[in-house]
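Please predict the structure of the following assembly.
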Amino acid sequence: MKNKLKVYRAVNDLTQEDLARKIRVTRQTVISIEKGQYDPSLDLAFRIASLFGVKIEDIFTYEE
Amino acid sequence: MDKRSFQRVRLIVTLAIVIVVGWAVLTHASIVVPLIGIAIGMTLLFVLKRRTKEVMEDERTHRISDRASRTAVVIFAPALVLAAVVLIVLANTVLPDFKQTGDILAYSGCALVILYNIAYVYHERKHQVAGR
């Protein structure tokens, strides 16, 4: 799964620490998601999308 | 308390528990001593963890923990059974002193597998898809 989390974070002027606090995860999890090493659960993906006020598919795109 | 401080305190408390338990075993002290030490240590860590404001664990750490537990069981259970079989065979042939140790290992292996399966069934039912 690809994602544009880093882009959205930069646009909203958030550090990884800030984002982690807002979506209630550890900073390591934010780093892993940004690097594409970890695919978040649907619940977490919704929290991220909701934070940025966009749809999940705007941030995350599925690829086989 | 921040996450880093908590990790430091956790390391110190863990070392203290190890020292207390090790000392109790070496000096044949009363079993109450290590039990009290463990209880105090666990209570302290529990209280400190609740007071830590930072997120200490999340779904990723839980997933890592799940996989680590499964890997540990998958490696440890067969190793335990193999060791038990070897000891029981040895006990029946050349080294009868190993009989009790072999039995304990065999029963521990069985207990581990049974516990794993009970936990598996419990979680499978808990996360069962409704309306199937």
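Chain B touches chain A at residues 54-61 (CB under 8 Å). Residues 73 and 109 of chain B are 10 Å apart (CA to CA).
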